[in-house]
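Minutes, project check-in
Item: structure for the 235-residue chain
Input as provided by the requester:
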Amino acid sequence: SVSILDYGAISGDSSNEAAWSNSAAITKAVLVANSSTDRTVLVPAGYDFYIFEVEFSHLYEITLTIDGNLYVSNNITEWPTTNENHILAALYIGDSSKITINGTGLFDGQGYDWWWYVIVTTIDDRPMLVAMERVSDLLIHGVTFKNSPQYHLDIRDIKNVHIHSIDILVDVTKQKQLLQEHGLLNELGIPTFPLNTDGIDPQGINILIENVTIVNFDDAIAVKPQSGSNYFSSC
């Protein structure tokens, strides 16, 4: 496997500089794997890496194994507010095939600060945790996804997908306290201000999602329509 440590990843440092370095290290490692015989990129166990946006397109037969911990930087003002080319996400993959995300590690969006920011400012430029468009033959299993700023897995216009044996967890207690403090819960404890921390939002064809644990304060799995304007469509 190709370790991100070999490309300058810095563990245990939440600074902006380290987070950008880690995004660059992941990018380099994936691009190397995409042009070599060893097509597995490793986030090694026992390390914590803070990241900003990482984006890819035209990957083929790539495995990203997350055995360590990835944390989305919560330095909100350092984040871009949008991406002109695609969905804003901590990890974005577009126009690719035979993609696997697996491992025993954690992908943590550190969403609390983002939720607080949206409620207080009403400005909502939050990234997704993972977003994909026009990806076929996708396999995701093993990893724990936690506290995304917005959707955890926003996967659009996809084909031949198997997602299984993953956990998607939101700190519901913290989220509830935050909403309650700002009068955004009704008498039944239901949010009146949606923070949109959806679990999985799939849009596509031939998708199997099974054996997943999703604990959040929003949609667990929200299936979106696939139409004739999409790449993978016969309508």
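Outcome recorded: The radius of gyration is 17 Å.
No further action items on this chain.
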